[in-house]
């Protein structure tokens, strides 16, 4: 949650960031998961590995990010991750 708070605080006030996080904590469609294996798939920004690990551990359909550090994950065969940008994800959701 710390990285989410950092990212939100860069764009919004600390108060707004805390409000968003408090909503996420109790939202019924948010699942908290703990990765039990660290794949270390991202070399350029190792701090991003936690998101790839959680995508795998949570058996998520997509990892949605505009962060270019995740692009190499699009080409690996195993573990297979569906890395998409926000615009690509919007198209998927809207069926366009």
- What is the H-and-E element order? HHHEEH
Helix content: 40-55%
Strand order of the largest sheet: 1-2
Distance between the termini: 32 Å
Q: pLDDT under 50 segments (min length 5)?
A: none
Instruction: Count all strands and give the number.
Output: 2
Report the principal-axis shape.
Answer: globular
User: How much strand?
Assistant: under 5%
Estimated radius of gyration: 14 Å
Describe the structure.
The protein is mainly alpha-helical. It folds into two domains: 1-30; 36-96, no CATH class. Helices cover 43% and strands 4% of the residues. It has four helices and two strands, in the order αααββα. Strands 1-2 form a two-stranded parallel sheet. α1 crosses α2. 10% of the residues are buried. The mean pLDDT is 92.
């Amino acid at each position: 949650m710390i990285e989410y708070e950092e990212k939100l605080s860069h764009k919004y006030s600390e108060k707004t960031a805390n409000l968003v996080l408090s909503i996420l904590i109790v939202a019924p469609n948010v699942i908290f998961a703990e990765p039990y294996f660290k794949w270390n798939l991202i070399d350029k920004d190792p701090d991003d590995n936690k998101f790839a690990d959680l995508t795998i551990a949570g058996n998520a359909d997509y990892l949605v990010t505009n962060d270019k550090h995740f692009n190499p994950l699009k080409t690996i065969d195993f573990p297979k991750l569906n890395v998409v940008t926000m615009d690509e994800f919007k198209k998927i959701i809207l069926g366009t």
